[in-house]
Write a structure and sequence with these properties.
The complex is a heterodimer of chains A (147) and B (275). Chain A folds into two domains: 66 residues, Ribosomal protein L11/L12, N-terminal domain (Ribosomal protein L11, N-terminal domain), CATH 3.30.1550; 66 residues, Orthogonal Bundle (Arc Repressor Mutant, subunit A), CATH 1.10.10. In chain A, strands 1-2-3 form a three-stranded antiparallel β-sheet. A two-stranded parallel ribbon of chain A has the order 4-5. Chain A is of the alpha+beta class and 147 residues long. Helix content of chain A is 34%, strand content 22%. Chain B is of the alpha/beta class. Helices cover 28% and strands 33% of the residues of chain B. In chain B, the strands form three sheets. Chain B has a seven-stranded mixed β-sheet with strand order 10-9-8-11-12-14-13, sandwiched between helices. The radius of gyration of chain B is 22 Å and the shape is elongated. The model of chain B has no long low-confidence stretch (mean pLDDT 95). The chains are: A alpha+beta (147), B alpha/beta (275). β1 of chain A pairs antiparallel with β2 of chain B. Chain B: It is an enzyme of class 2 (transferase). Chain B: Its EC number is 2.1.1.-. Chain B: It comes from Arachidicoccus rhizosphaerae.
């Protein structure tokens, strides 16, 4: 018989570096989950992406056990890495702080496809491009579907 | 005691959550919680790193609202710790809390009050380390426990007859908690020390390290050099997929590979230094 679900917790924490500090401790501890066990498992499963912020969806069961699914890093973080800049622009439309290429947008869209509500790579690329623009990043050249 | 700042950002529109996580993480925020289907974002940062003006600047273009509050560090694992099940490793060791009153027919009993530290025997890696420790000779040995957590493995080493045990951890809670557990188990041969690497000035006949792949790889050379002639190295915190890399690494460093044991997706490995 399937275990009864008592709730879901959505966190974003750094790969390989989860510890009982917030948000992990308060969010999971209040549900009676053994947070040390979560940290050990999460850190082992994300050891190839140390320090990278990763979304994780945790299912907590009524017996205090848990499962979790690790999603791909947010597009915004991947875009900042691609543009090799440390901070997004405050005035995103007026002050362009960096550039990415359509090839980089496509690579990020490919990576994010499983987590996005998109059926085609083109629509995923449009979503990633929208995030890039609102962060103040210019996308060099024209979109592949405009060529 | 660390204080954290919790920032609750409300009024998020479609797509803004992802964007803000990126911007805030670049600004030093270390973790996030999503609530209300992504319409509320909580961001967390050490109070000492918090900059209200920077946060206002950062959020201003997005039309969101935010509130802040202080979160004092506390034992967030207290609820689970208040009623966990004891762990029994064959007829060898029972690991229990002071609220477990039943009798265990095991050779040893270890009393653990974890207080947000790792090592209660519930995790496969601790269980395997405990069960592998049964196969070694401990009487009169000098032991290093790297990443001691609750102190569980050091305590078992003491009970098995080791004469001098150095228990290291990089976490203040673990240092305090290991010290308490050592006292409540009447162990008198363990010294606890805060450390960020396995580097010490001693050589050990047995080294225990239940941490994770990255820390073990980063300390592999030190661990190998710290082994006495013919010494044993027991390691865990590793996944099955790490086995080949870790095996090759320690063989290259000059150790002899003896065994791997498996439980769920985890492994524990045993290496030996040349005589």
């Amino acid at each position: 018989m399937a275990k009864e679900i008592s709730g879901f917790v959505k966190l974003q924490v750094k790969g390989g570096q989860a510890n009982p500090a917030p948000p992990v401790g308060p969010a999971l501890g209040s549900k009676g989950v053994n947070i040390m066990e979560f940290c050990k498992q999460f850190n082992a499963r994300t050891q190839d992406k140390p320090g990278k912020v990763l979304p994780v969806l945790i299912t907590v069961y009524s017996d205090k056990s848990f499962d979790f699914v690790i999603k791909t890093a947010p597009a915004s973080i991947q875009l900042l890495e691609a543009a090799k800049i440390k901070k997004g622009s405050k005035e995103s439309n007026r002050n362009k702080v960096g550039k990415v290429t359509w090839a980089q947008v496509e690579a990020i869209a490919q990576d994010k496809m499983p987590d996005l509500n998109c059926f085609t790579i083109e629509s995923a690329m449009k979503m990633v491009a929208g995030t890039a623009r609102s962060m103040g990043l210019t996308i060099e050249g024209s979109a592949p579907w405009e060529n | 005691m660390t204080t954290y700042k919790e920032i609750e950002i409300t009024g998020l529109k479609e797509g803004q959550l992802d964007l803000l996580v990126g911007l805030l993480s670049e600004a030093g925020y270390s973790g996030f919680e999503e609530l209300e289907e992504g319409h509320i974002l909580k961001a967390f940062i050490d109070d000492s790193d918090f900059d209200q003006a920077l946060l206002q600047d950062l959020l201003e273009p997005y039309g969101t609202h935010f509130t802040t509050r202080d979160l004092e560090e506390q034992n967030w694992n207290a609820l689970w710790e208040s009623n966990f099940e004891p762990v029994v490793v064959d007829d060898f060791v029972a690991i229990r809390a002071d609220f477990h009153k039943q009798a265990f027919n095991t050779e040893f009993e270890i009393l653990i009050t974890p207080k947000m530290s790792f090592g209660t025997g519930h995790h496969a890696t601790t269980y395997m380390m405990v069960s592998q420790m049964r196969h070694l000779e401990w009487a009169g040995k000098k032991v290093l426990d790297f990443g001691t957590g609750t102190g569980i493995l050091a305590i078992l080493a003491n009970k098995l007859g080791a004469k001098e045990i150095l228990a290291l951890d990089n976490d203040d809670w673990s240092i305090e908690n290991a010290t308490e557990n050592i006292l409540s188990n009447n162990c008198h041969h363990i010294k606890v020390k805060k450390a960020h690497t396995a580097a010490t000035d001693g050589h050990y006949e047995i080294i225990l390290a239940n941490i994770n792949r990255n820390v073990i790889i980063a300390n592999a050379e030190i661990l190998t050099q710290s082994l006495a002639t013919g010494g044993d190295l027991l390691i865990s915190g590793l996944l099955q997929q790490d086995e080949a890399d870790i095996k090759n690494l320690f063989i290259q460093l000059g150790l002899t590979y003896l065994t791997t044991v498996y439980k769920a997706q985890w492994i524990a490995m045993h290496f030996k230094a040349a005589k």
